[in-house]
Amino acid sequence: MASEASAGLSAVSSIMGGRAQARALKTEGVMLEAQAKGVDLQAKQASERRREDLRASMAAYIAQRSARGLSLDSPSAVAIERELTRQSVRDEGVERLGYINQAGALRMSAAAKRRAGSNANFMGYWNAAGTLMDAAGDAMAAGGGGGSQNMLGKSAARRAKGY
Q: What pLDDT, on the 0 to 100 scale, is given for residue 1?
């Protein structure tokens, strides 16, 4: 009787442990998803900052050429403006790609945590079932279990009494 109660408590403990682990993992997944959204925001802010820097650089370049009395539409001026723009766009793309990769990794980790949470819940029930099956097998082996063995014993006793 004590072993059955112990098995029952162990089974309940397995289920509750699986549920607790599932909740913890799913919460971690939500937190990682929130971090990914924060990284997305950083990417947008960094891109806007790069564009503002480009506009400021171009304005300073144009002001400097105007102050010196140089033509703004000369081939060298146009080439310099194109190069400034090309470098700025490249730098923005590289920085943005870094943020996109970081957010993607966080999202993949969040998905893995959610899957692990589902698996933990399932494993809690699976372990509980295993514990109960082991306890039933032990009880049957000890001869104290109910089931078919007990019924066969009652049936033989009734035949012996003439029922």
A: 58
